[in-house]
Structure formats: structure tokens, C-alpha cells
Amino acid sequence: MADFLLYALVAGLALAVVAGPLGAFVVWRRMAYFGDTLSHAALLGVALGFALDVSPTLAVTVGCLLLAVLLVTLQQRQPLASDTLLGILAPSTLALGLVVLSFMHDVRIDLMAYLFGDLLAINPTDLYWIVGGSTLVLALLGCLWRPLLAATVHEELARVEGLPVASLRLGLMLLIAIVIAVAMKIVGVLLITSLLIIPAAAAQRHARSPEQMALGASALGVLAVCLGLALSWFQDTPAGPSIVVSAALLFLCSLAWPRRA
Asked: Which pTM was predicted?
């Protein structure tokens, strides 16, 4: 197997494994729009990374983490509804990123690669970021699984039992921010959230427990990555969108597959 294809496969599988359980929480908590906002802000992080001459991946990671904290703060202090606030920040950060990039005449940037991913162009440094970030998120998610699940199922009861609900919510948002930052190279800022939501939504229909849904979402994500890379390799289609299309087809298959009694 060619090195670039091996790098792409390992990176895609690492992201799919962690996106499964994290995507389950995104579906349960109906946080899809939050993920979209963070993914749009990733392009602003890329622009600032080039402007400050630092690693774009590092800039995107820090930018997504800071935006997650800002969103939590604004949601607590502003009278605006959460979806309205997210609707303001999502296009604003994306547009600001595009404007900042337009001023960098001496920097050549493949904008399509950042918008839709460039999985087959992953190098060893990108792979370290993706695998390291995915491993960190998966480990933290494993430690926080029970309290996060309790706060998701019944937030008021979890608060009565003494669980730090606000801190858990912020922690979940920060984990989503890390995954979005490392996933940018794989499926691009416009398609990141789909890799979190589609496998989890497909697994939800047939799962009998939260753990089954998380594992099923990871398995479907892994399958979507393999199918998408195969499609890209044999038909010369863009890798990131091919993975998302594969995930969407798996979701349609899950709808057609009869549920167990």
C-alpha cells in the first residue's frame, strides 16, 4: 500500500472511532448546529495561523477551543436563544476567515482542500495530530462517559445528585472542538459535522443501549471511511465528500433495514 494511502486510512479510522461515541452525544443533545458553528470557525483559525506564521492545525485547535468557551459564556449571559446565537456566529466566523485569507496575497492556499478536505494529502505530521487528538478525546470521553450520560438523560436529576452539569457541558463542547480541529484535514470544514452525526443517527435506530449506539456509530464510521477511500481510489473522486456520501448511503440502508423486535 502506498504511504499516502496508508496515512489516509489510519487518519480516517482514528477519526471514525472517536466520532462514534462523541457523535452519539451530539445526536442525543441535539448539538448539530453547535458543531457547524465550530467547523465554520475552523477556517478562521486557518487564516489566523497563516497570518501569525504558526501551524494551521495548532491555530485551528486553539481557535475552536476558545470559540467553544465563548459560546458557553454567551449562552449563559445573553438573552438570545442558542440557535439564534449560533446562527450569528457560524456565518460570521466563516466569512471573517475568508476575508482574512483574501488579504494574504503572498500566501498560496488551496481553499477547496480546507473546505472539503484533502485526506490523500495527509503527511506524517498531520497524522500525529489526528491520531494524538483522537486518542486524547477518546480517553477523556471514556473517563467522562457515565457522568455525561447521566447529565444527558436527565439534567435536573444529575444536578440534584451533585454532578457538575455545567462543567460537563463545557467539557463535551471542548471535546467536540478538538475533534473538529483534527478532522478538518479529512473531510473539510463544511463536512465535519456530518461525520459526527450520520453514523450516530444510523446506529441509533438499531441500538438497544447507549453503549451499543456508540460502538455501532464507530463501526459505521469505520466502514464509511473504508468505502469512501475505495471510491476515491478507484473512481478518482474527492476523498472527504466520498466518505460523507458513503456514510449517507449507510444511513439509508439503516432506514431500510428492519428493526429488531
From this structure: 0.87
